[in-house]
Amino acid sequence: MPRLRDLGFSIGVLPTGPANALTDVPGVRVGHTTLVEGHGALRVGEGPVRTGVTAIHPHEGSVFRDTVPAAIGILNGAGEITGRSQIDEYGLLESPIVLTNTLSVGVAHRATVDWLVANEGMADDFVIPVVAETYDGFLNDIAGQHVREAHVHAALDSATGGPIAEGNVGGGTGMALFQLKGGIGTSSRIVEVGGTAHTVGVLVQGNYGRRHQLRVDGVPVGRYVTDLLPVRNSPEAKEGSIVVVIGTDLPLSDRQLARLARRGMLGIARTGSVAGHGSGDLLLAFSNAPSVRVPRPGPAWDRRVDPWVVAPRLHDVYIDLVFEAVVEATEEAILNALVAAETMVGRDGNTLFGLPHDRLRAAMQRYGTAFR
User: Fold this and answer.
1) Is 155 within the bounds of a domain?
2) Which among 103, 142, 320, 366 could disulfide-bond with 137, CB atoms 3.0 to 4.6 Å apart, if both were Cys?
3) 328 located within any domain
4) In degrees, to the nearest 5, what angle opens at C-alpha 212 toward C-alphas 323 and 175?
């Protein structure tokens, strides 16, 4: 699928990683399960199905055994991300991150627990997985709850590094952006701190916005693409949401990661979002730097280690560049989701149109935006 830069446009000034994706952060792996079945009138429990699962492993090993600093930010809270209270309490992430639709949070939560029990041998331990959602009921038989445990396991098992499929895939299969087709998008930035290059990566599940709000690199594109509104043969879609996952290999504390999550909100705003009353705008940031990982206590845990050892963290005086990277990558990840997504017909013939690339170019040129 094409991306924003394939059309000749880019966001910001910082360089991207090789894949321009969350997986540019060393060790991060992403997997999708995409479910597209059936056509025609909605029959709850039978379809049509337009949904899926996206799974993110924060590093190359087991995040259950080697937890990572993390923080969650909420711009508007009409949505769900499980495990928030424990992350707020400990400042640590101990499970993969799973994204799906609103009514499949329960099965995704249980499936992640079962996957961890099978893969981590945690029969005498407990885990509170992180599962986040956005609503896909305009296209999908969401009440039919078609996501099964096997679909979650498949996303977890298939996760890899490298380029990430975007648009109508995984948890983003049935999602909308600015009354066009939306879904999964990703982007990354390279920052040099202390003479060493580090990566900030972002992945979004985008499902929000009204057409007139859409802005691309500051250009009010939504005012010039006023047609191609959703075809509605059943009740109007609910106000949308977004999940933003921010990862980095910079050694950051949970306090600093909370600051990154708040900067991700600025990236959302730059695309035109007003974080409406019914929107769930959920952001999670983590650092997988080996120096800040926290081993989980267990039989091999050596309690004779120095209890006062503090891992080195980035000094706050250098963090502005990281903030800039988060804002740029979040904005571009959302726009990549919009550019990659294709027209999709779902339940009752409800239709979301893909953003026409020629119309995007024309709107950008109207404002004198040079191809980069």
Assistant:
1) yes
2) 142
3) yes
4) 70
- Classify burial at 194, counting beta carbons within 10 Å of its beta carbon; exposed 0-12, middle 13-18, buried 19 or more: exposed
| 37, 201 contact by CB (below 8 A) | no
- Domain membership of residue 307 (yes or no) is no
For residue 212 the two structure tokens come to 């007139």
With CA atoms as reference, report the closest residue to 288 among 24, 21, 83: 24
pTM (two decimals): 0.96
Structural domain span for residue 76: 4-297+313-366
Catalytic residues: 241, 279, 281
159 contacts 30 by C-beta, under 8 angstroms: yes
pLDDT digits (tens, 9 = 90+) for 104-154: 999 999 999 999 999 998 777 889 999 999 999 999 999 999 999 999 999
Looking at the 3D structure of the chain, how many domains does it have?
Answer: 1
Share of the chain above pLDDT 90, in %: 88
| Ramachandran quadrant class, 162 (left: phi over 0; alpha: psi -120 to 50; beta: rest) | left
In this structure, the number of other CB atoms found within 10 A of the CB of residue 38 comes to: 16
* 3-state helix/strand/coil string of the chain: CCCHHHHCCCCCCCCCCCCCCHHHCCCCEEEEEEEEECCCCCECCCECEEEEEEEEECCCCCCCCEEEEEEEEEEEECCCECCHHHHHHHCEECCCEEEEEHHHHHHHHHHHHHHHHHHHCCCCCCCCCEEEEECCCCCCCHHHCCCCHHHHHHHHHHCECCCCCCECCHHHCCCEECCEECEEEEEEEEEEECCEEEEEEEEEEEECCCHHHCCECCECHHHCCCCCCCECCCCCCCCCEEEEEEEECCCCCHHHHHHHHHHHHHHHHHCCCCCCCCCEEEEEEEECCHHHCEECCCCCCCCCCCCCCCCCCCCHHHCHHHHHHHHHHHHHHHHHHHHHCCCEECHHHCEECCCCHHHHHHHHHHCCCCCC
Residues 101 and 79: beta-carbon distance below 8 Å: no
How would you classify the pairing of strands 97-101 and 66-77? unpaired
Chain centroid offset of residue 249 CA: 17
Whether residue 303 is contained in a domain is answered as no
